[in-house]
Amino acid sequence: MTRFNCQVWILVIYCSGYIGVGLSSALLTLRTIAFWNSNRIVVGVAISLYLLHISFLIYAMTQAHSIWDTATDACIELNTQHNLKNFLVTLSTDLALLAIMLSGIWDKRKEGGLWKLVYRQGILWVAGATFGQLPCVILTSLNYNVRFQKLPRSKA
Fold first, then answer.
1. Do 150 and 72 meet the contact criterion of CB atoms below 8 Å apart?
2. What dihedral angle (degrees, nearest 10) is formed by the CA atoms of 79, 20, 41, 127?
3. 3-state SS class at 54
4. Residue 155, SS3?
5. What are the CA-CA distances from residue 82 to residues 11, 22, 94 (Å)?
6. I need a labelling partner for 28 at 20 to 30 A (CA). Which of 2, 21, 45, 84 fits?
């Protein structure tokens, strides 16, 4: 493999992943605001949580550093423990938005099947967000990245 600029590569990887995470949180924020019929307090809290989340995504991109390792012919990311803050903020802001959204669904419930469908979707979203983000938080807190990156790689 030829040597290339690892710093640019890691920023491209982070940026492409964080765009998806940011848009997912934007959808959750808009859904929360919609269930509360644009209540000013809920709008303020939801947008504040979303901006907090986006600010940590930008912070994580500024902390991303990578170097070329000649022994493995690959880029190695440095200081991966900085990602833990980002994953914790992502998990906590999404769970807070989900809790606000579910309370709005519960508050507006009526007899019929539509609110039950939306409520089940909200429960599934909570479960998906929790189970989807917990492995990132756990593995980053264990900081096994350096060990995994130094595993022997096949040259074939």
1. yes
2. -90
3. helix
4. coil
5. 14, 18, 19
6. 84
DSSP output for 125-150: HHHHHHHHHHHHHHHHHHT-HHHHHT
Lookup result for tokens 């907090």:
52
Spatial contact of 146 and 78, defined as CB atoms under 8 Å apart: no
Q: What is the pLDDT along the chain (156 residues), one digit of tens a residue?
A: 567 788 888 888 888 888 888 888 898 899 889 888 889 999 999 999 999 999 999 998 888 888 887 777 777 878 777 778 888 888 899 889 988 988 887 777 666 666 666 667 767 766 776 677 677 666 666 655 555 544 444 443
Question: In terms of Cα–Cα distance, which of 100, 89, 116 is closest to 32?
Answer: 100
- Domain range list for the chain: 6-149
DSSP per position, 59-96: HHHHH-EEEEETTTTEEEEE-GGGHHHHHHHHHHHHHH
Place of tokens 């170097």: 67
44: number of CA atoms within 13 Å, CB side? 3
